[in-house]
Amino acid sequence: MQKVFEQLTKSFRHNKGTINKETFDNIVYKHSTLFEESETIYYILQASGYPIENENDKYIYKPFFTDYKDEVFCVIDIETNGSKPNSSQVIEIGAVMVKNGEIIDHFETFVECAFLPDYITKVTGIETIDLANAPSAKEALTNLRIFMKDTIFVAHNASFDASFLSASFYRHGLGELGNPVMCSIDLAKRTFESERYGLAYLIESLEIPTTVHHRAYSDALSAHFVMKKSFETIPEYVSSSDDLLKFAESSKKERTAKKASKS
């Protein structure tokens, strides 16, 4: 489904946030391996967290019409017992739901796991006994999926967290991650100067109040503070949530051209 998410977003952006049923059908049938009716695929997209709505046979991409200041962001961090989702698993999940710069909800859980390498314990402080009676992977991931809804997924080094979670969702029959993804490292690099942008360095340099590094909830909370710092210097030409997503991925050349076109 990842190709469907990408192609739909590309089409939405080209068509100012709205596409008709024919365009929607063409994309999902061309890029999906599913054989359900387009209406069923639409509900699968929604269940995956892709922010789409249907109004009178018109499909709407919600971030295009949402002011980024009013957007809901789900800032997430995960701890795992290895780096590859096909041979490793999530052992801890932490998330904060953020709107207008304030935390409006939170999610935190260990995940049942029988195998925990010593080096993971040394880095995180998590021990096997912490995971013994925790929710199963499917239960924890299901609860996270429900918690996330169709918010914008934010993480520090988001490519790892998003790809690992997407593979984990898929493995447990929960589809893939369809939420728009934004990396707080990318956003930070485009909004404020720092010698380094690793979370440990930013926690210290920005004097972020945190109890411990390399624990899921604490790191999610720290990434929220990094995002909050970035929001202090977002350019005026960034208006919608989709503008923000594009800005976070933009090159210096693209940002300069966009700023010049708005001046």
Descriptive report:
There is one protein chain. This protein has 2 domains: 2-65, Arc Repressor Mutant, subunit A, CATH 1.10.10; 68-233, Ribonuclease H-like superfamily/Ribonuclease H (Nucleotidyltransferase, domain 5, 2-Layer Sandwich), CATH 3.30.420.10. The protein is an alpha/beta fold. The strands form 2 sheets. A 5-stranded mixed β-sheet has the order 6-5-4-7-8. Strands 1-3-2 form a 3-stranded antiparallel β-sheet. Helix 1 (2-14) packs antiparallel against helix 2. The mean pLDDT is 94. The protein is built from 12 helices and 8 strands. The protein is 45% helix and 17% strand. The termini are far apart. The protein has helices spanning 2-14, 21-31, 38-47, 118-124, 128-131, 137-148, 158-171, 184-189, 199-205, 216-230, 241-249, 252-262, and strands at 18-20, 52-55, 58-61, 72-80, 90-99, 102-110, 152-155, 181-183.
